[in-house]
């Protein structure tokens, strides 16, 4: 039994009567009556523990807590548990980490304990503030909706975010713990976001979370110096949110009246708030310099502690700091600059013309499906960090829709090139003219390291995004992939592969003539990096324990090599899988376990498949491995094995019910599996519909949509779902399939262009 609370944003009112708004701060006296075999925790330390009898004569424990500091209702919290804890004191602040007894005994929370104190001190030192509470509890719950919650003095996490097996030396696991812990501590150590200074109203939530997300990366790289901060931040924060933000959902800061009902509140806890907030903070810190940024934050914290503020208050404080010095010159007031990024939807794309040295900006939007009548006349005030021929240039600004920069006009020489938004210091994309792109492509082939790694990543991500949205032809993007044999950074390879072979296309691409060309073109370029990592897999995989990107991205590289039919990759998979079959206690290296299991089964026969099935049914397999095996069994290349797998899925005794639908979903995405799964669903629908109803059918039809190219194919699917779905559902699915068909036809055209480009370039 366990009780824990989560009050943010509007649940405190369900626990006790209150004015449940962030600006209404109060002090709280909390007392909890509970079973004597449990311990009660709250924001403040317990000051008294006594006993009381109820009318039946049973004994209860009463725990009384010290009066809290002045704070918002959403930060009050309590936990009643029978957990154990580990503790240490850092600068007079007692830090305790609570978890299930066996987890504490086995040392699963030791790592979290080792980093919490140092991150706390780091944040206190950076911000020049001291933590006002006498103790901090971090509690690991077996089940918790968010990654973590920053209740003041009593932070709550899901177990996965706080636990690390002592035997697990791999950085990726530690990195995740370090990131979540330092995010929540960023709130604690009385960052402006959050506890000491709270937003006036939820529309400024991004200040809270965006800043915590920014400090999360600073804190994590402070305790794990082997993590490369800028690569990590770009690949995991900026790049994914740029993809999402280009759909132009909403602006970062909303007006207060927009967010009055608590319904719209929950939708604010999204990537725009966290990741765009962090990206814009990163940009702000970049053009102010970190020194000024931190100085402004410090003065802001001092003025607003224990009260409320909104984003304009912060801009005012930054402005005051900017006005007292003359190293950093801004083209406009801090408020004007920042409002252009927080109050407008989306973000800009800059287009550079090398001949004239002109840069113009426009909102980045999808030109393929917008009517030309839509007008986007937003302008941003944009900081531009740039380099010319490898040397960094002074920061410059674009504060109107276009502007000429004489210093950016280049000579006739092929070796005179320009790079904008170096190391992604700004939250925008860049579109170069053909001349500069040719020069950059040439540079990459001769000397890729002349361009910093983050900028190479960005260059490739930008050209593919520009292609998707109709700004430049696909051929232009492909030119920039020629150099890849010299690319040794996994995080860059990852973005290339996600763009060239998106996960949802793996099954369909094999049907086209583009496949053999892609195979030849890519494998030639992948071999150096593939062999480099395969060497570690063969000899000493532990040597990769500090290579964070290998732990996150190596799987995609290996999976692609096997998918492209690289013999060495297929052999390595069967070899490691066979080793596991001979010695079930052997652990396939987790970096590529998923790929090895999949291709071990694919290359093998029913013997390999049956072994996976046997291991899946082992009671002591851990959840992560079960998921891998469920996936691997759908990789079989023989139709009868897939059919049998689906049959197994139907019988209640073999599976917990939620696996059946995931088996079907796995099989339907495979090139030979999709017809088999579709037939299976239609034959067994009466049985399946009882257990899963519309949702399963929806998922299956979505995947079937990837294969639809003609009306006849749609009609074939329609015959089935017209008989099984309600009318409004039928219409929705028909629309979905119609648009899938158009997408597939468009993609077919695109693939034809890729094919003819590859035919010309495959032997380069």
From TrEMBL:
Output the GO biological process annotations, alphabetical, semicolon-separated: peptide catabolic process; proteolysis
Residues covered by the Peptidase M1 membrane alanine aminopeptidase domain:
111-341
Q: What Pfam family is a match, any one?
A: Peptidase_M1
Q: Where is each ERAP1-like C-terminal domain found?
A: 417-724
In which broad location class does this protein mainly occur, judging by the first location in its UniProt entry? membrane
Active-site positions, per UniProt?
Answer: 184
Site (Transition state stabilizer) residue list: 274
> Where in or outside the cell is it found?
Membrane
Q: Identify the domain of life.
A: Eukaryota
Binding of Zn(2+) occurs at 183, 187, 209
Which keywords accompany this UniProt record? Aminopeptidase, Glycoprotein, Hydrolase, Membrane, Metal-binding, Metalloprotease, Protease, Signal-anchor, Transmembrane, Transmembrane helix, Zinc
* Record's protein name: Aminopeptidase
Organism annotation: Gymnorhina tibicen
């Amino acid at each position: 039994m366990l009780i824990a609370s989560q009050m943010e944003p509007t649940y405190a009112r369900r626990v006790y009567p209150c004015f449940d708004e962030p600006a209404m701060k109060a002090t709280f006296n909390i007392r909890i009556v509970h079973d004597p075999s449990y311990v009660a925790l709250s924001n403040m330390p317990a000051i008294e523990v006594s006993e009381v009898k109820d009318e039946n004569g049973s004994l209860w424990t009463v725990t009384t807590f010290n009066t809290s500091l002045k704070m918002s209702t959403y930060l009050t919290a309590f936990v009643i548990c029978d957990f154990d804890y580990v503790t240490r004191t850092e600068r007079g602040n007692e830090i305790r980490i609570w978890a299930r007894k066996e987890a504490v005994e086995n040392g699963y929370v030791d790592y979290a304990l080792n980093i919490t104190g140092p991150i706390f001190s780091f944040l206190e030192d950076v911000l020049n503030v001291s933590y006002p509470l006498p103790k901090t509890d971090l509690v690991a719950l077996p089940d918790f909706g968010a990654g973590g919650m920053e209740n003041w003095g009593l932070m709550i996490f899901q177990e996965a975010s706080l636990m690390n097996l002592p035997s697990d030396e791999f950085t990726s696991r530690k990195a995740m713990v370090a990131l979540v812990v330092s995010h929540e501590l960023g709130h604690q150590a009385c960052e402006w976001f959050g506890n000491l200074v709270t937003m006036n109203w939820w529309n400024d939530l991004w200040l809270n979370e965006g800043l915590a997300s920014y400090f999360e990366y600073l804190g994590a790289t402070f305790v794990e110096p082997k993590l490369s901060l800028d690569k990590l931040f770009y690949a995991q924060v900026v790049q994914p949110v740029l993809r999402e933000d280009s759909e132009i959902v909403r602006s970062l800061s909303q007006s207060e009246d927009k967010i009055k009902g608590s319904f719209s509140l929950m939708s604010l806890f999204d990537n725009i708030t966290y990741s765009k907030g962090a990206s814009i903070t990163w940009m702000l810190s970049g053009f102010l310099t970190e020194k000024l940024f931190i100085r402004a934050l410090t003065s802001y914290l001092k003025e607003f502690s224990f009260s409320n503020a909104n984003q304009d208050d912060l801009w005012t404080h930054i402005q005051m700091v900017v006005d007292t010095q003359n190293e950093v010159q801004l083209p406009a007031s801090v408020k004007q600059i920042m409002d252009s990024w927080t109050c407008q939807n989306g973000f800009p794309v800059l287009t550079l013309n090398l001949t004239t040295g002109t840069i113009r900006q426009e909102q980045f939007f999808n030109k393929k499906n917008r009517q030309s009548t839509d007008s986007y006349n937003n302008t941003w005030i944009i900081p531009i960090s740039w380099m010319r021929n490898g040397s960094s240039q002074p920061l410059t600004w674009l504060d109107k829709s276009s502007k000429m920069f004489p210093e950016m006009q280049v000579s006739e020489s092929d070796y005179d090139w320009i790079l904008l938004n170096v190391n992604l210091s700004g939250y925008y994309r860049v579109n170069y003219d053909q001349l500069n792109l040719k020069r950059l492509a040439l540079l990459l082939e001769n000397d890729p390291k002349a361009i910093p790694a983050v900028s190479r990543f960005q260059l490739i991500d930008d050209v593919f995004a520009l292609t998707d949205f109709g700004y430049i032809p696909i051929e232009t993007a492909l030119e920039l992939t020629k150099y890849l044999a010299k690319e040794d950074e996994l995080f860059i390879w990852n973005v290339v592969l996600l763009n060239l072979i998106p996960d949802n296309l793996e099954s369909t691409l094999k049907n086209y003539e583009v496949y053999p060309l892609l195979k030849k073109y890519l494998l030639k370029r992948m071999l150096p990096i593939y062999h480099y990592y395969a060497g570690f897999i063969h000899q000493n995989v532990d040597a990769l324990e500090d290579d964070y990107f290998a732990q996150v991205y190596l799987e995609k590289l290996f999976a692609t090599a096997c998918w492209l039919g690289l013999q060495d990759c297929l052999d390595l998979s069967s070899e490691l899988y066979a080793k596991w079959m001979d010695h079930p206690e052997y652990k396939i290296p987790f970096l590529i376990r998923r790929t090895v299991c999949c291709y071990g089964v694919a290359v093998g026969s029913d013997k390999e498949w049956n072994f996976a099935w046997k291991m899946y049914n082992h009671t002591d397999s851990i959840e992560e491995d079960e998921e891998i095996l469920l996936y691997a069994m759908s990789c079989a290349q023989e139709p009868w094995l897939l059919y049998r797998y689906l049959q197994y899925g139907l019988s209640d005794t073999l599976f917990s019910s939620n696996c059946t639908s995931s088996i079907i979903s796995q099989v339907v995405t495979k090139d030979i599996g999709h017809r088999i799964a579709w037939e299976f669903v239609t034959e067994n629908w009466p049985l399946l519909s009882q257990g899963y109803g519309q949702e399963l059918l929806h998922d299956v039809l979505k995947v079937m949509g990837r294969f639809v190219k003609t009306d006849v194919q749609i009609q074939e699917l329609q015959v089935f779902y017209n008989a099984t779905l309600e009318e409004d559902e039928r219409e929705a699915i028909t629309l979905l399939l119609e648009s899938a068909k158009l997408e597939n036809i468009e993609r077919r055209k695109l693939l034809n262009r890729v094919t003819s480009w590859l035919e010309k370039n495959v032997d380069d």
